[in-house]
Amino acid sequence: MDVSPRGTAFEANDKDLSLLQLMNQDVLADPHSLYRALRERDPVYWDPYMHAWVVTSYPEVVNVLMTCLADRTVSPAYLDQLGLSFMKPFAELMPEQIMFNDGASHVRLRGLCMAAFSPRRVERLRAVIDSIADELLDKVMAVGEMDLIAEFAAPLPATGDGKAAGRANRGSSAAECLGARHCRGAR
Description:
mainly alpha; two-stranded antiparallel sheet; 2 strands; globular
């Protein structure tokens, strides 16, 4: 699926404006400067380093989501061909996300999410989530520091999913594996 419109007015020739900059720890510490520069550059442009279109303004994002097929993820094999193998964890996760599914699959996933996260259900889980957050924070209080992703952001939803489903926290739920895989890939 190569849609590289080489030489168009939309192409970002400045590597500093590539989303690959999010792999730089300094940029990741304060990504808002990059996001601002991307929005100011053009609301829609081709990132030749990511081999992807970047859409940065709300109206254009809505247009893409409403008029384009969601099956627009790059295959891991194609990333290898482009020399972007380090992006494979993202490519593997994208088809699992609701916004990258069309038709019956999208409707099924949306229905599951709507049922799982209805206002009534979320309110019932509030005490459980607060309790899990407190437990996770208590574990690191004596140390005085923590890896926020590994010790809080990844285990919180996985532990919450397990408790909500009535499972003991064994640290090996599918949600925890997916969450940890996603968080590791985002670093």
